[in-house]
Design goal:
By secondary structure, the protein is α/β, with parallel strands linked by helices. It has 2 domains: 169 residues, no CATH class; 189 residues, no CATH class. The chain contains 13 helices and 12 strands. Strands 1, 3, 4, 5 and 8 form a 5-stranded mixed β-sheet that branches. The protein is elongated.
Length: 375
């Protein structure tokens, strides 16, 4: 399929060459290829409007914020590096407000689309990706290859059908959970550290870490979910890996530190199902908030050049008065453990940002490490 060529100052009639018609949503629509430069020219010429999207974050005149802003910025950065995964782009042409024809050129043997009036918009999908393409094209770094080709579907839908398709696109199907996604592919150096730790430690691996969901059941023999370890490293690890050499060195350190941890706290290694269930009943050692705390403490050991073999001895397992016992008053005093509210005298843990920070500080103090004020 030929690519729509870059043309400055596009006007009606707009001719898009070598298109294909597809059947979807009860009608015929157009598939074609466009370069980044062509998409930019369409927008600059007023023939591609950034309007109509159903997401509140994209409402006209509203500044991008939150997850949508993060998503657009991430795509922009990847486009500037010319390594973005964009997939198919969707735009919409309202047949009730435009004049167009699909025709066959006998000379070239190609099917073409001519739009005599009407504007393409983003009523179906892809506005975040289109905004990222426009931002990358406008970035002063100038590294984005504007000849990059994208597969584009032009949906021929009126407003009612466009809303229906947009709703199905944005609501149908479940997103892959974070544990599965991060275990499969690491987007950041910290995520890669987590994956290397889990894969490289003899105490972890898929038989002890849940990689298919974001939690483990109370009856499971597994230590924790992968996303717990990954998020703990993403938020609490202060090693600041930049190069691949940093990742290799720091992941090796983490694997060795985990060996030292298991020597004094066997529950951070592999246990039988009955042993794991008993451990969860007796201590908070393997709760998500404590794992966050341990990673934060390991970060202090790494940055302050403290030997984990020495530091972890302070929290060694004991038959009585175990540091991680549910009834150790320090956990409730710091808001990490709270009454369960069930009326049977049980306890639960809080996994909020303040409680994670408190867990880091409690563990650092117990092991004689200097806790940072902003931990």
């Amino acid at each position: 399929m030929a690519v729509a060529e870059e043309t400055q100052g596009l006007t009606h009639p707009l001719e898009i060459l070598n298109v294909a018609q597809v059947d979807d949503a009860g009608g015929e629509h157009i598939e074609c290829q466009m370069t980044a430069n062509y998409l930019v020219d369409l927008h600059k010429s007023g023939l591609l409007s950034l309007t109509g999207n159903i997401r509140p974050a994209h409402m006209e005149g509203k500044r991008l914020m939150g997850k949508t802003k993060i998503k657009v910025n991430k795509w922009t950065t990847e486009l500037l590096a010319n390594e973005a995964i964009i997939g198919n782009i969707s735009v919409r042409l309202d047949p009730t407000k435009s004049d167009y024809e699909v025709w066959f050129d006998d000379e070239t043997g190609q099917q073409n689309l001519t739009i005599n009036s009407g504007v393409l918009d983003c009523a179906v999908d892809s506005l975040s990706r289109i905004k990222a393409i426009l931002a990358a094209a406008d970035n002063p770094l100038g590294s984005f290859d504007l000849s990059t080709r994208f597969q584009v579907r032009i949906w021929m839908l009126d407003d009612a059908l466009a809303k229906k398709v947009a709703t199905i696109y944005n609501t149908r199907g479940d997103k892959v959970n974070d544990s599965t996604a991060k275990y499969a592919y690491s987007e950041t150096k910290e995520q890669e550290l987590a994956r290397r730790l889990v894969n490289g430690s003899e105490h972890l691996g898929q038989d002890n870490i849940e990689v298919l969901s974001n939690s483990v059941s109370a009856s499971s023999h597994k230590l924790t979910a992968y996303n717990t370890i990954s998020r703990a490293i993403e938020t609490s690890w202060k090693g600041g890996p930049v190069t691949q050499a940093d990742v290799e060195a720091q992941s090796s350190w983490l694997i060795s530190a985990w060996d030292s941890l298991v020597k004094v706290r066997p529950e951070y290694g592999k246990l039988s199902t009955p042993a794991r269930q008993a451990q969860r009943k007796n201590t908070i050692a393997t709760s998500a908030v404590v794992i966050y705390g341990l990673v934060g403490a390991m970060s202090k050991m790494y940055t302050d050049h403290v030997d984990p073999e020495v530091a972890f001895k302070a929290i060694a397992a004991k038959d009585e008065d175990d540091f991680f016992a549910w009834d150790n008053p320090i956990w409730m005093a710091k808001g990490i453990v709270t009454p369960s509210g069930s009326g049977n005298g049980g306890y639960g843990t809080r996994n909020s940002f303040p409680s994670r920070r408190a867990a880091i500080n409690v563990l650092c103090e117990a092991m004689g490490l200097d806790a940072d004020d902003d931990e």
